[in-house]
Amino acid sequence: MKSWIYISCVFLGGCSFGVLSTFVKLAYESGFNMSEVTGIQFVIGTILIWILALFFNKKKLSLNQIMKLLICGFPMGLTGIFYYYSLETLDASLAILFLFQFIWIGALVEWVILKHKPTTQKTVSIFIVLIGSSLAASLFSSGEKTIGLEGTVWGILAACSYSVFLVISSMVEKEVPALQRSAIFSTGGLLIVVLIVKPFSLMDTTSLFNIAPYGILLGLFGVVIPPILFSIGMPHLGPGTGSILTASELPVAILLSLFVLNETVDWIQWMGVLIILLGIVWGNVPINFRTNALKPKSIK
């Protein structure tokens, strides 16, 4: 039973990330740039998660543990930077598709670093999810899509950094309480964002006031919720299985683009969503359960 709790946590963490692209696009349409959007997301998100952490028991950590967790938060911040750069230069569907390469990258990292060779079940699941994501992102639609080199590079970098973050979530300082661990991760993400994108424009009071609503939403769904859920579930599942579960991001992104952005979602995209969900189920339902379910029942 506990395994399903861990699976649910990682699945919902992926759903949370799926919210981001819609509100990033809305922020861009309101005139804000990548630096401002990423900066406000991590500033507000880190504040929120530390406020939550104050109300729960915390473990006393050594300076070495704190520094390790801070550094391990860097990929979290880098994922936001790379992905939002990609969204500036590519269609959202293509940016998400490139980000989705973390599914097989995560399995590869788990194989190379943790020496866990992907099972046939996991390999088939990854293949199914990648097919579904290609359909859901309208890769094969009749409309023309411009694939720029710059956006492609940013998207692949986002996939790599996201994979690293998933691995870290499953390995580093697992004995530290999830909320405390997530708060330090987020602080590390904030540090790398401030160092790289230098969101100094946020010092302007008017800009800060106008972007704050986006910052609250992006901070909550991008900085607060996913790290907490991943800190709970990933140590028990591993980055390979976790990567498959976080594919829940794309169906959520498509649903929000339909209901919030009023974008058209065609039948091929809906088919892609169903295939993604099938891939997730296939990768996480025990083989003996599937086998028994598919066996013809004996007639008495």
From TrEMBL:
<feature type="transmembrane region" description="Helical">
    <location>
        <begin position="40"/>
        <end position="57"/>
    </location>
</feature>
<feature type="transmembrane region" description="Helical">
    <location>
        <begin position="184"/>
        <end position="202"/>
    </location>
</feature>
<keyword id="KW-1133">Transmembrane helix</keyword>
<feature type="transmembrane region" description="Helical">
    <location>
        <begin position="69"/>
        <end position="86"/>
    </location>
</feature>
<feature type="domain" description="EamA">
    <location>
        <begin position="5"/>
        <end position="135"/>
    </location>
</feature>
<feature type="domain" description="EamA">
    <location>
        <begin position="151"/>
        <end position="281"/>
    </location>
</feature>
<feature type="transmembrane region" description="Helical">
    <location>
        <begin position="92"/>
        <end position="112"/>
    </location>
</feature>
<feature type="transmembrane region" description="Helical">
    <location>
        <begin position="124"/>
        <end position="141"/>
    </location>
</feature>
<dbReference type="InterPro" id="IPR000620">
    <property type="entry name" value="EamA_dom"/>
</dbReference>
<keyword id="KW-0472">Membrane</keyword>
<feature type="transmembrane region" description="Helical">
    <location>
        <begin position="5"/>
        <end position="28"/>
    </location>
</feature>
<dbReference type="Pfam" id="PF00892">
    <property type="entry name" value="EamA"/>
</dbReference>
<feature type="transmembrane region" description="Helical">
    <location>
        <begin position="153"/>
        <end position="172"/>
    </location>
</feature>
<feature type="transmembrane region" description="Helical">
    <location>
        <begin position="267"/>
        <end position="287"/>
    </location>
</feature>
<feature type="transmembrane region" description="Helical">
    <location>
        <begin position="208"/>
        <end position="230"/>
    </location>
</feature>
<feature type="transmembrane region" description="Helical">
    <location>
        <begin position="242"/>
        <end position="261"/>
    </location>
</feature>
<keyword id="KW-0812">Transmembrane</keyword>
<comment type="similarity">
    <text>Belongs to the EamA transporter family.</text>
</comment>
<protein>
    <submittedName>
        <fullName>EamA family transporter</fullName>
    </submittedName>
</protein>
<dbReference type="InterPro" id="IPR037185">
    <property type="entry name" value="EmrE-like"/>
</dbReference>
